[in-house]
Amino acid sequence: MSMKRCVATAVVLALIGLSGCSNVEPWVKPYERDRLADPIMFFDRDPVSSAYTHHVYEAREGARGGLGSSGGGCGCN
Amino acid sequence: MARTFLCLMALATLSWLSCGHAAVLPEDRADALYHRYDGGGVTIDGPSLLVRKQVAKNVSVAANYYVDSISSASIDVVTTASAYSEKRTEMSVGADYLYNSTIFSTGYKNSDESDYTANSAYFGVSQDLFGALTNISMSYARGWDDVSRTGDSEFSEDVERHSYRLGISQILTRNLLMGMTLETITDEGFLNNPYRSVRYLDPDSERGYSYQAEIYPNTRTSTAVSVRGRYRLPYRAALHSEYRFFDDTWGIAAHTGELGYTQPVWGRWMLDLSYRYYTQTAADFYSDLFSREDAQNYMARDKELSDFDSHTLGIGVSYEILPEGWRFFEKGNLSVRYNYIYFDYENFRDLRDDGNAPGTEPLYNFSANVVQFFFSVWF
Description:
The complex is a heterodimer.
Chain A: H1 2-20, H2 47-58
Chain B: H1 2-17, E1 29-39, E2 42-56, E3 59-72, H2 75-80, E4 84-99, E5 102-113, E6 116-129, E7 134-149, E8 152-173, E9 176-189, E10 197-201, E11 209-213, E12 219-232, E13 238-248, E14 253-265, E15 269-280, E16 308-320, E17 331-349, E18 363-378
Antiparallel strand pairs in B: 1-2, 1-18, 2-3, 3-4, 4-5, 5-6, 6-7, 7-8, 8-9, 9-12, 10-11, 12-13, 13-14, 14-15, 15-16, 16-17, 17-18
């Protein structure tokens, strides 16, 4: 079941990818992203530290995966 | 399944390649970290070195060297075995390639200790969309583990792992970022610890119980879904939160919630505060005390598979040591982080005191202190 969900999400992401090629007007303009460009807004400000912290939890908990940054940034560049 | 997922990754990639939004490679940076975990009779410390560098116009590479030096007299060890020391060394390399608006990532990791070797490789793609308001990423990882047992040269088992990960991050407003991740992991092979035992009621034993080796299923599939947000406050500070739901075929369901606050102070200092709550249900085949020997096909008494909660309080301080840069370094930070974790078990009992009837021993709990010191430079 979870596999099917995974595949369905992949299809949706591919479709979003296709629709992303259309000319969508960003509602937060690049010049309005100065606050998001501040390092205090990074999902993963120190990767060496967050990787260690996740390891500490995964070694002692039954749950695993799904944590951490899902990639990307603020698109400020 | 892996083939289907890779085909879909290729389809998504093809659909993204024609899009024209800019994406950027990760920053060039080096970190040297010392970590120390101390709790429940276990001490683990060691270094982690991480270097990332852009080596061509569109290519960035990274390498990580990590060591766990373990000294263990945990409750499992104290009650069923002898204290031990060992060392685990992990090395990983990775590369990111930027092509138009898409970043392709690949990497390899090896972890080695005296009785366990793990290797894994991954491939991922990520793409900015809608004027870089949205980022979508997909990755697939495969792992191969070799399991052995100290003092038993005949024992040799293996494990095969597959991980499928999908992520999306989204700018919602000028002050709010959101992210979501879905990850499914499947394992097949020898999944239990070759040293750990379960206990069962035994009227013939003086203490009322005896031990036998634990037996796990040889497959496991888990799914985790998480959502996170980061909000920039009206003054220069940020709030963040994260929630994860986890479920697997062993019957474990878990919830994880975290709240945090980041506040720059006195110009060059940064303060981080956080609280994390974790709770899980036990695996279907877990019991602290089985009714008899060979009571079930599968049996576990690993406290990580029991019902328990944990609470973590965290504080971190960073100091910017090179605000103007120095030679080819753009900036540098010194950071220290401390986490206090309290684990409270609901059906795992503390057997260190022999004066109780089997099944009436006090429930186990312990706390851990986790410290990290690290030095980071950007260049």
